[in-house]
Amino acid sequence: MNTNSHIQHGLWRHPAAQQADFNDVRLWIDLAKTLERGHFDAMFFADVVGLYGPVNGSYEVNAREGLQIPSNDPAVLLSALAVNTEHLGLAFTSAVLQEHPFDFARKVSTLDHISNGRIGWNVVTSSLENAARNFGFDRLMEHDERYRWAQEYMDVVYKLWEGSWDDGALLKDKVSGVYADHTKIHKINHVGEYYQVEGPHLPSPTLQRTPVIFQAGSSPAGRAFAARNAEAQFILAPTPEIARTTIDETRALVVEGGRRPDDLQFFQGLTFVIGSTEEEAKRNEAEIDEYISTDGFLAHINLGLDQATGTPLDPDMPLKDIKHEGGQSHTAWLRATMTDREPTIRDLAKITARIRGRFVGTPEQIADHLAVWQQAGVDGINVMNWTIPQSYELFIDEVMPVLRARGLAKQESAPGTLRQKLFGRDQLSESHYGRQYRGAFGDRS
Ligand SMILES: Cc1cc2nc3c(=O)[nH]c(=O)nc-3n(C[C@H](O)[C@H](O)[C@H](O)COP(=O)(O)O)c2cc1C
Fold it and tell me: Where is the Luciferase-like domain (predicted)?
């Protein structure tokens, strides 16, 4: 995330950490080049558009920890990264709340042109009260309604990206003096519950038309949304077995919706503490643990405080007694892992701070571990960092050669668009929901 402290709170103070200087574009350009050198498919930015915590609560912890405040817009940053890289996919998060779909579609097409088709979009609905208030709402919309809203947002952007311009509309013909053929450019005339958009889309189609669609919610509504729209889903399963169940269930929905099972790929978030021996890895882990901020983790999970008053909840309170409209994946996963009793707030803080996605070991042990995730059906991993850029430098220099030798990672960066790298095609598959809008507006408009 384009901020100081994204997930691993407190680590910005680690001697190797440079993320405190995230305002400096060189940090990100250098990191993007490192990832490209390491043959990563993509660099992904998370984002939020508000503060964590109760609406009238203090944000002293957030500011003290640099916990997602201050933060900068990842989409703006991507244009700098696009011109400094050639192969790396560039994915960012944008919530349906934060931008009108007409303008958002235009911004993404512009980025996709600048990068020659390397853009991915992580669609989120935003579960932060403060974010809702930043965009003119009194309160956060109810969980499942947020997904209905998101679906209409998707319809608008698909209509613009897929349907507004036919192939061959852009001529750039200096001899005839025709730049673009208006008969192949269509208004979309969208009228829905949340938006009215006439069109046409202002940019001409990009190599991908629609950016690669990422999604990260695992609630029933989130999975249904992913099954219809997403091409890649981020998961944070606590074990490979739980990943397998999540993947199988979501893939079944994908197939029910008429898509092929591998039209949706799954990326597990993991984070590594690497050592050349097991002892060294454990020493590195102990060093990391010295910097972890429990205050930061509790403020981040957004559940440790009463949402009305901002006062701390009893840490022994069972999770099932907490009423909230925020994200539900974390609590659902914790319930699935802790089968002997109902987990509490204290359990959640502990697992989030200490266990989630962490693997400690030598490069060979990491490769063994990743083979298990692969067997569970995971298509790829999202390497979450402790320190920028060191977490990635170590992974690329020490782990990637072992993964390549074992056939667990690609030998080279595939050229071309991000969708080409992941799926071997530039545009949405024929059976994707968004493709229904291709050619849909010609006669009607
Ligand atoms: C790996 C991962 C990355 C995520 N990135 C973001 C993000 O950048 N911004 C955001 O608002 N939510 C992010 N989320 C939260 C999800 O989009 C979603 O809101 C959350 O998982 C709750 O959705 P659910 O109730 O459908 O499970 C992320 C979740 C995961 C697992």
Answer: 13-379
- Hey, what's the torsion of the CAs at 398, 403, 405, 411, to 10 degrees? -100
Angle at 252 between CA 248 and CA 254, to 5 degrees: 115
Return the ligand 1 atom nearest residue 382 CA. Answer: 1
Summarize pLDDT for 67-119 with one digit per residue, the tens.
999 999 999 999 999 999 999 999 999 999 999 999 999 999 999 999 999 99
Q: What pLDDT digit, counting tens, does each position of 43-54 carry? A: 999 999 999 987
Residues near ligand 1 with C-beta < 6 Å?
46-48, 93, 95, 122, 124-127, 216-219, 222, 234, 236, 269, 327-329
Percent of the chain with pLDDT over 70: 92
Question: Would you say 47 is a known binding-site residue?
Answer: yes
Measure the CA–CA gap between 182 and 170, rounded to whole angstroms.
Answer: 9
How far is ligand 1, taken at its centre, from the CA of residue 439, in Å?
33
Q: Select from 67, 211, 217, 44 the least CA-distant residue to 127.
A: 217
How remote is the CA of residue 124 from the centroid of ligand 1, in Å?
6
